Give the backbone structure.
Amino acid sequence: MYPTKYTKAASIDDVLAALAAGEDAKLLAGGQTLLATMKQHLAAPSDLIDVRAIDGMSGVTTDGDTLVIGAATTHADVAGNADVQRLCPALASLAGGIGDPAVRYAGTIGGSIANNDPAADYPAGLLALGATIVTNTREIAADDFFEGLFTTALDEGEIITAVRVTAPAKAAYMKFRQPASLFALVGVCVADGAGGTRVAVTGAGEDGVFRHEGLEAALSGNWAAAATEGVSVDSDGLMSDMHGSADYRANLIKVLAKRAVDAS
Amino acid sequence: MKDGIGAPVKRKEDKRFTTGKGKYTDDIRNDNQAYAAFVRSPYAHAKVKGIDTSAAMAMDGVIDVLNGQQLTGDGIGNIICGWAITSKDGSPMNMGAWSALATEKVRYVGDAVAVVIAETQALARIAAEAVEVDYEELPVAAHIEAAMADGAPQIHDNAPGNQIYDWELGDEAATDAGLANAAHVTTLNITNNRLSPNPMEPRSAIATYDDAEEHYTLYTTSQNPHVARLVLSAFYNVAPEHKLRVIAPDVGGGFGAKIYIYPEEITCLWASMKTNRSIKWTSDRSEAFLTDAHGRDHVTTAHMGFDADGKITGFKIDTLANIGAYMSLFSSSVPTYLYAPLMSGQYNIQNIHCNVRTYYTNTVPVDAYRGAGRPEATYLVERMMETAAREMGMDPAELRRRNFVQEFPHQTPVLMQYDAGDFPKILQMAQDSADVSGFAARKAEAAKRGKLRGLGYSTFIEACGLAPSKAAGSLGAGVGLWESAEVRVNPVGSIEILTGSHSHGQGHETTFAQIVADRFDLPVENVSIVHGDTDKVQFGMGTYGSRSGPVGMSAVVKAMDKVEAKVKKIAAHTLEASEDDIVIEGGEVKVAGTDKSMAWHEVGLAAYVAHNLPDDMEPGLKETAFFDPVNFSFPSGAFICEVEVDPETGETEIVNFTSADDFGTIINPMIVEGQVHGGVTQGIGQAMLEQVVYDDDGQLLNGSYMDYAMPRAADVPSYSISHHEDSPSPNNPLGVKGCGEAGAIGAPPAVINAITDAIGTNDLAMPATPQAVWNAIQAAK
Ligand SMILES: Cc1cc2nc3c(=O)[nH]c(=O)nc-3n(C[C@H](O)[C@H](O)[C@H](O)COP(=O)(O)OP(=O)(O)OC[C@H]3O[C@@H](n4cnc5c(N)ncnc54)[C@H](O)[C@@H]3O)c2cc1C
């Protein structure tokens, strides 16, 4: 790792000041992505600004049937939170299936979605659930947030503070693990709620997480596993790599969507 | 004897390993220590046109940057392969030069061109990135097919067409005739996937030069420190053997990858002299993937013929083996003498012919990895048997039974003479334990849940106890493959065993102590094992090929014979009795049938005070022995694997795995079970998860655990294991056969035979990932 300077921020203002002062400063949350890239000399930020100690950045609160999840809430805390389990069990089980315990007790929801890895779980969950991403300057709908591989709508220096998720009527997330990393080879989240019928797919798209219109149309008004049978999932635009061809991923999208509806 | 042979004694070494008190190479801190980081080629094949070290040298804390010209200029020799193979036309193998730091050309991604020595490890690595190497890229042959192709890039000048040798074993004409007369011939094209060994502890070295004594000390992660010293001295010219001490302290797994002497150890030794600092290097995991010798990587076409009764009439094998960019220490022997002699399996086959051609490619060297040649042979033989049975509409167990060798000794047409075994019995043991007769019902029940259930066999034999030195020498080995031991009875009666075997996970500190406790009827706590240090242990050939039991322990037994004889002489003299009447029992040395006795420790004391020894006897009570085996030992086993496949995703679950093994005499059943667990798990890893992938440019695509899948606990079932002990090896004093590799050797075909049974097509290659299984199902539709 290249030398770097660590700062623990106590407030958003602290963060902004440190960002302005640093030559190439970066926010640090659980470090489960960032530290690994630094160890491999793929990133060399001059400063690391730890956002986890900022008041209100961690923990889950509720506003009626809406969950407000602090950006620095760990995957383990989301998975184990009683309100998340009650209002949106699909999200609790998604968080509980990320990586391994060491990753879940350090990695955070804010870090995960800021990173927007094309095989990460939260992007599919938040997109299907029609979540809202809250930052220090604005609120961004999930539909507008996830832009492509490792890219989001966040501006330079913009800080995610929370994620809001309104309880769906029905939802489930099904993940098929890549055997080595245990990230999603394909993950499908299906949800039926205030935002309508939504099906989001991670791990498969060449441009990252996406909604599948065909599956959404089939499930709208007919929320049944059998409704997915007639849908054709095109392999165009899907990733092909040593872990799975585009055809195989297309097959998994359909199988997982069916199983997710069954499980919802 | 409570802690003797056959007792499940808890591992003596585990207290330190489980409490963080183990002492590994990287734990060693020397005064005056500096760190090495290697500048490695990002290209698989390129000319090195220049190295600019100025930016790195300018960094505060960088001590030196050294290159290959300097290394060869100082007389450091090329790295050698220690087993000479002769091609079938009589020509010697084409071994290309391998310098620890590349001089003119790099031949794989990760090939080292320079080394940075700096005050801290982090700084050394940063400075290594600042070394600018001017490369001229050359065309790349990253796979066997590319290396063999017309006009393929020439990797070493002295290996035309990149071929190292074209070797054969067996009678081709007789085998062709056997196939021509067959009622049925089964043909398979089989790839044995390339694996990365992944010991938990990465390689590490710390080298110190003492300029006053002109003496070097090397701590390193080695399975065979004496062999390391031998080649470092005799071939790499680092220092004469008496000026070089090699210590392999606690070593966290080897699996073969730590047999070889790598560029990094040589470079650290040389750099310690150049800089007069103690030089430490520890590989990180990425470096391990790039530079540890890989295993397997064969492509084979094979034909097996059967008569109308299902008896094998001939077996013909044509194998292409990838050796990588350079010939590592044992690389040439793995696809030849460790491979072809296993082609007879457990079967009586009169006609076998095996042709092996090996090639250089622009990849890291390939050498022995847990099983070394025997997994490749076993996979072939056992896939053949199962596939042939399916093609002929026979029960695969019955086809095997018809062909089993039943009389011993049995001479195969491929060098081996099997000495003992009972193949029908162990197959029956496995079938009973796996409840094969209930399989049809289980399959039907699984079908109701939408799952495809399958069952596969592997009945295998392997050869351990490498090896009778004379035979090995006649086949090209550069060393003898005996083992040595010293048994020291101290004046207080405690015993130290100095062995040339090396434990890097096997539990020798327990099992070697058990055979001593058993012999002298003493508590296992009174015995300690000394190994891994060339200044302490007389000599040794180290641990690999499951040789520590059959060869290493046999040397201990031979030395104990001598100690026992002397103990009896001393006791007979002291107690005024005949030697023949002396018995050693219960901590005492007694005159049988009398009440005359000495405590065991009194004999030790008598030997060292020497106040009252027979006139012609030397004082002291320690004896050395060298044991050279007269034959290999032949462990065998029957594995049965049962799987369920999800046809929608191709995901496979192993629902049952049964192993019935013949390891001969078992010293410690708990440790043997552990070896089976580990071996079978590695075999399942090869069968279902692991595969090193290089792209056509020779870039390693899965050089981390994010992409290279190792088996996790959740990937394997709870194993059912049983042992057959009634056919001990007749060729060593304990009757042991070796258990370290059997699991990795026997498991892959059992798994693939089970999956192919489930999905109803034989066309499935390892690793059977969900994608591969799904593809096979689609292709068969
Ligand atoms: C072995 C392993 C397995 C994993 N498996 C999975 C898996 O199965 N599924 C999955 O989804 N993920 C997986 N991950 C990734 C894991 O979920 C990470 O925790 C996550 O991607 C990053 O979160 P973090 O809190 O660690 O962020 P960090 O690594 O600290 O930061 C990641 C990025 O986000 C930025 N960032 C952090 N916080 C904020 C904020 N509040 N506002 C704006 N930007 C911010 C950082 O600057 C950085 O660019 C795995 C990781 C590992 C190491």
